[in-house]
Amino acid sequence: MSTTLSRFAVASICAASALACEAPARTEPAPSHPLALQQPPQPTGPGLPVLREQEHLRRSPGSPQAWVRLGQAWIAAAREMADPGLYHGAADCAGAALELAPADPQALVLRGMVSLEAHRFDEARRLSEQVLQRDPHQPLALGLLSDALLELGHFEEAVDAAQRMVDLKPGLPSYARASWLRWLRGDVDGALEAARLAIDAGGSQEPRAWLRVQVALMRWNRGETAMADADLDRALAEFPLYPPALAAKGRMALARGDSSAAVRWLEQAHERSPLVETAWLLGDARSALGDTAGAEQAWTEVVRTGRAVDRRTLALFYATKDRDHDEALRLAEEERRIRGDLYTEDVYAWALYRAGRIAQARQASARASRLGTPDARLLYHAGAIAMAAGRAREGRALVRAALALNPHFDRSAAAEARRLLAQRPAASMLTRSDLAR
Amino acid sequence: MKCMRGTVSLIVALALMAVGGRAKASSHREAPAISSDPEADNTDLYAWVAPGSHDKLFVIANWIPLEEPSGGPNFHKFSDDVLYEIHVVRGHSLDDAVTYQFRFHTAAVKRVDTADLSAPPGGGKEFFIQLTGALNQTYDVTRVVYGPSGRRDSRVVARNVPVAPPRIGPRTQAVANALGLAPYTSPVYDDAFAASFIRPLGDRGRVFAGPRDDGFYVDLGGIFDLANLRPKGVAQDGVAGFNVHSIALEIPTTELTADGLPPGTKAGDATTIGIWASSSRRKVSILRRDGSTRSDGPWVQVSRLGLPLVNEAIIGYQDKDLYNRTQPKDDVANFGAYFLNPIVVRDAEAVGIYAALGVDPTPFKSGRTDILDVINLKNIPTAGAHSIPISATGDVLRVDLATDSAFPNGRPILPGTDREQADVTDVLLSLLLTKGQVVISDGVDHNDATFLNQFPFLALPWQGFDQGHGKTTP
Description:
Chain A is mostly helical.
């Protein structure tokens, strides 16, 4: 509509909003939130939404919602670049939003997402519960609660929260949680079906690519390496250079014995996202190629980074490589203080096994296996521990099951599993408990 | 104090940044918390009666916002896992009287042995998706009629109807057509080709589904920058050049009136219906019981739309999830306060719009029963024409079948022009901000394509090859 009147009105409105844009600039709380407002990396790629939300925020610095949206953009960027450091921006935004509106549910959930990433699981749980107490129908808070409960070792309660989430809002976030919980419970077909629904509902690139990587890892975990590889190719076609997909490509290449391809994929992945797990795989791939010095270099990186930020993976690395038993156990014990999920129990069990504390290892392994998770590493650990505890028949069956499920689940662990099976039953009863000391 | 704190966190920030440039952490298995769901996202709804004769109702419901025409290789399509619905309510009730349900089905791609060099083009071995058959999508239409005392009569009125394919480019059209690959049954993607996807709904109307030009025109950039409105010529049509996926219906009005008779020409509640569209996805059991292999839980609504811009301009950010999962019949209970006290007025005041107009915003801030009266067509088309009670207010597009439609009594496209009958953005901004006393415009007043003279009315979709948002480079 373009009457004279409306033209006049529009002109005046423009003048007014131009003024309005400048006025708040003076009261902008930017200086107290430098991390939220810093320039994002890759400002023309994954960083672009962050720039846009920052621009939006400059026009309405008093809006808690604008801070929350900027925080969510930081988290999306952190995921896309697989750079957890960008969560500092989100943390800063949560702080700013909560200064303006201390009870804002979205701001509390944002803070909870930061807590989760920082492995402050109990804090994440408390924040989500705080939101849900006032409004039990917040899908985002239910997802956060489910994630936190799972890490804290409360599987059934995590399922319950995820069920409430999907009942309220079926979509990629809730289907993805259904997929992971089903997989942990041993329902691989159900997990793949939920992942398919999630991918169908996934409009955003990174979340969909993330699901494809999860699907690939589930397939790989039951030995379907070729199909897994195709899933990863799709992920990379849709979202090029996605670090979790690059790392998984390396894992697949290593599993099928193409070590030089594995090295290339893993170097690419590690350069973009220096995760402890990726460095470990890179070391394994270089070692398989005969590059001993290169392997040592990568494994040194595992120790360096693991000590700084990821003690659970470092503990598993030590235990898997059968080295540094005391540090491994200490790290696993520390992790157990904040985390009770089955992967933490598994690492603890394996560290105890290496330390020769078989009875305790047996208990921890039982806790790690209680859901029937179809992960070859868990099965192998349970089997080896059972053998060491004198349950040769049960233990050998588990080790065989691990290798049947995924013969290449880990380079050194799978080799060790084969050696263990090759040993005579009588000898194997003595192996770990006595020799590890 | 503020400065002090600023300095402290700046130091903290620098310290953090100094740790090797980028922070490292353990790989996290957390699934994404937030993700868009465009295939289940309603974008617009149009409905109007055939002028003069009032014998047909046209409904166009759109999904999937801002589809980039060149968005291969995974071109947008309707989701096979979504229940798409167009709801019709009648008179003083917001319960569905008639519902049209749409379920889509994509053909499974045939697996072809890649070693078989004599295999003809087509199937899963192909690189280009238009050659695989994966763009072969069909749908079924179910008409549900709700009788008195909750009786529900559900009937499939069209089966295996083909969906119009994406308009990828001239070579796709020519090659796929020459190879005889459905759905490319024409060497060119023109109006006649698109019209070949129109099918009868039994003997009671017609249906079309497929990509079209997004017929909406609005300065998204301006409005979402806190109503930073710009004059015509400066304002930008934020949806120009983008496609949507449309479902278009042409329904005899006798299918919709309570008594099954023609609506005639006398306005009134008895001939007034309300329309809204929705999308639903299935619940799943997080842990499946043994034996259930399919995901076939009940449907949960994840998106809906009735009047334009209600979710965007009236419902607060914190309640958008609630809006999307609830029904119009509960809108008064859930969102009454948003309608009566529109937040957008306070926002507009905060950014100085009223000061610029020299208008006192106080009367527009609360007690806005005038908004409810407009939605319920109280004085439309004539004073006292309708008396739908406030309790029956909901986000539905009201259409009095007995009168020629004019927004907000229906929302007609003007066939053969590049305009809707009313600039709905301007009408709603003016209504919300000033009770219509001052015309407020977003400065965009026509579409970037000309509407068709006939069903399905929206223009051809933009072609990926040369009409996308890419730019030539030197």
